[in-house]
Amino acid sequence: MNALKCLKAACLPLTAVILTPNMTVAQDTGLSSWDWQAEVYFWGADLGGKTTSGDDIDMPIDDILDDLKLGFMGAVFAEKGDWLLFADAFYLDLGDSDDVTASIGPIEVDVRGSFDLKGFQSTFGAGYKIMKTAATTLHATGGVRFLWLDGTVKVDATESIIGNPIAGQRITEKEAGNNWDAVIGLRGVTALNEKWYLSYYGDIGAGDSDFTWQASLAANYRMKNADLVVGYRYMDFDLDNFGPIDDLNLGGPFVGVKFSF
After folding, report:
1. CA-based diameter of the chain, in Å?
2. C-alpha–C-alpha distance, residues 209 and 213, integer Å
3. In the Cβ-directed half-sphere of 70, how many Cα atoms lie within 13 Å?
4. Interval 27-63: pLDDT, tens
């Protein structure tokens, strides 16, 4: 059924937007104990790419928000001396249902279609300080990127009109999988003045993916009890044997609030 294939191609990649959270570095204070930071944020990323059948994936952020049932985005960082630890996570639960058209040979019939998708993405690892100046701190980083997707697509033709060739049928298709990649990169912070500083990050990697990379740049403003973070992030996956998805790219602005403790 062409409609079912289209529904899967449009829906399953949605959770890949889980891919990705903002990661910022805690500035070195020279203290002997670990300095901790936590961040909550929203990444307004549009989704693009290709399915294994060669169809384009193009889903703007407003479509993703329309189908959102539950979502969480956050990150934690710790720094001690020259060392940095980081972990971030993104979870989404998406679902929707609608009337769709299914093609059976030359015949097109109206049926009820629905999808339910859950996904989790996390990048975590460690960094070591390789440069320190009056304004800039730079860490070389290494870590792991994990992606999990679980999606179910249902087509219910039990209420189709009499005479439909698929009347009385219920069809359920499920796709689930894990994707692990090792990544290396650079993470830095550059102070502009007492209130403003830039944070930036980039990495490349491979593993279950043929290749993956990401880059982000953010402006940070120090407030009384927290820092406001605004920036742009892009992430790309060249996936290998990961369900119906062959290539994914995510890009868009993000905004967050960062707390030190």
Report:
1. 77
2. 10
3. 7
4. 444 444 889 999 999 888 777 888 776 777 676 777 6
